[in-house]
Amino acid sequence: MSDENSISEEEKIKIAANFLFHSPPGEFKEVFLDLRGLLNDDRILKKSLNNINARYNQDQFVQCESENSTDPSMLSEPCIITEYNELPNGRFYDPKSKVSFKFDHLHFKSSEFEQYQDVDALSESWRAGLEKELTKYVGIHYKSAACSVFGSSDQGLVSLVACTEAHKFQPSNFWNARWRSRWAVTFQPSAKNDTIELSGILKVHVHYYEDGNVQLVSHKEIKETITLSDQEQTAKAICKTIEKAENEYQQAISENYQTMSENTFKALRRALPVTRSKIDWNKISSYKIANELKSSPTS
User: Fold this and answer.
1) Each residue's pLDDT tens digit, 276-285
2) Does the N-terminal or the C-terminal CB of the chain have fewer CB atoms within 10 Å?
């Protein structure tokens, strides 16, 4: 047989890496194990895995535990793994507890906690104010949720990035889901009463796999404007804008799901076959259509 159409090792590595990066929420390990069985070559899988699990966790905003800076024996509120708090040598920092740590991307474990000293002085009060309001908002509207706010400054401009993540994993019921949002704003602190732009992206990923395999992958980009005030009022204005946008997005998804359930899916296929009863695929040979297929001449 000719090998003209065979897949090269480099292509296999790219395909496997793509599968891993697009794993459904909470199912990276399962996809990894399935690929291991399909490839039957740990060497290729190891090359595919190169940095993909780290990229995946940052893209998914996975939560991790952080040590409490005032009491090392206590764990702080969870923080989020993102590109915005990545440090060299596989470390990350928690802007809330001012602690850095090493993160194991395969086992989702944080370790080697240290005090984080490199805090941006100009943005910190604005960052902390937004984090306080966002933590309240997330606690009211989401379960199993976490948020982190990151601040930086450049030439007198303050930049804030707020990330939230909420998930619910129900493998025993054959479904997993994750919500992610990222909001960013840049402004000059002294320009009070100026209009500033708040940009955001909302992402939803749901995987349902009982007797089938259905995924909902949705995202929406948003741009809104707010009026710059002091730290407290600006933080409240940002969170109020976030709440309105996310409520509208969730409502739109719910309405779209209802429409699909009532119309789209019914148009795609019959609820039941013409026999008005569900097919028992384990006894397919007993059905008339199966018998006809068996007796039909082959070309």
Assistant:
1) 666 666 665 5
2) C
